[in-house]
Amino acid sequence: MMEELSAKKFKSDDHSEEMVIMVTGGRGLVGMGLKVEVERVPSDKERWIFLTSADGDLSDMAATRVLFEKHKPTHVIHLAAMVGGLFKNMKYKLDFLRKNLQINDCVLQCCYEYKVKKCISCLSTCIFPDKTTYPIDETMIHNGPPHDSNFGYAYAKRLIDIQNKAYHEQYGCHFTSVIPTNIFGPHDNYDLNDSHVIPGLIHKCYLAKKNGEPLTVLGTGNALRQFLYSKDLGKLLIWTLRNYEEIDPIILSVGEEDEVSIKEVARMIAEAMDFKGEVVHDTSKSDGQYKKTASNAKLKKYLPDFQFTPIKQAIQESVDWFVDNFEIARK
Ligand code: NAP
Ligand code: GFB
User: Fold this and answer.
1) CA distances (Å), origin 255, targets 31, 134, 198, 216, 252
2) pTM flag (> 0.90)
3) In a domain, 111, yes or no
4) Which one of 153, 167, 206, 229 is the catalytic residue?
5) Domain boundary residue among 238, 256, 274?
6) Which of 197, 318, 331 to mutate to test the pocket of ligand 2 (most atoms within 8 A of CB)?
């Protein structure tokens, strides 16, 4: 079977037939941000399938093949992954490594076997070398070890870039990747211990307001991050699907000037929640990587006029979503 799949059979630019776009991890934070955008600007030529883990375990090759056989996607946006914030990454380094290696191997191999014309996977700016110069750009992924707090996740994600290159060079596959920064928005994971900082602080602030207690921010609050709203990422993923032809990855990030401290983010969340109580810092907890300032110059070259949602507005929308959907939110 491997022999039959020659490079010339992959025609990533042939959009004459209907595109069947299968999104793995379609019910997660990024998947739901993408879905909102797909529904806002539908195209007759595109049929979208948003998979959930209930549809099949993508760390299992047989189950993954069943999904590809059933849906016969022409395009795949691969979002499914074991995901978590700093503290979950610190606790489960081996699980992050193994689970994500397994999922990525199953999905990319099936994309090859089922002649998928284009696959877009999701890396993260936390996978870049810890000791580096700033700003980080797309050429620097493999230049040195990642921050120790999340090396399991980081190495599994780095290997997607290597897999994409190898599938391209050996079989001519058009598999590429995007590199978003720290993402937030509606449908996030609001778990109090394992989530990323924005959903974690939104949930804590909600409880602090309800119970008349202080809001506890973990760490010093001095760490710096570039945050990306899931709805903006949804728009950028559709652009990537329709327009981005490189195998090499592209960083999807707000500008370097839009980097904010965790302290500032906590303040914005408290304001959006109309929380008037005390904000305290538990400095016994880790700050993680101090910063991972990324350049969005490549993105800006392709899309000079792209407008990111202002962070205050995006945080307000995310807080409102959480308050309105408290009962059903993942937490
Ligand atoms: P998420 O909300 O946790 O969504 C990930 C989804 O993957 C989950 O909804 C889960 O499906 C699915 N999944 C996990 N294991 C699976 C398995 N074995 N089989 C099938 N499906 C499985 O995470 P996200 O934030 O949307 O992340 C999407 C992508 O963006 C990931 O590749 C992540 O690494 C990347 N990324 C995220 C961030 C961030 O800050 N969140 C930053 C950079 C990159 P169910 O919900 O149905 O169980
Ligand atoms: O979003 P986050 O967990 O991940 O943010 P990273 C961690 C930063 O927020 C640290 C501070 O500086 C924490 O000290 N922080 C303050 C909190 N309060 C909280 C809280 O209640 N919860 C959390 N989680 N943090 C992740 C990587 O790094 O970035 C992942 O570990 C992933 O692999 C993600 O790729 C994008 O930005 O530090």
Assistant:
1) 23, 13, 19, 28, 10
2) yes
3) yes
4) 153
5) 256
6) 197
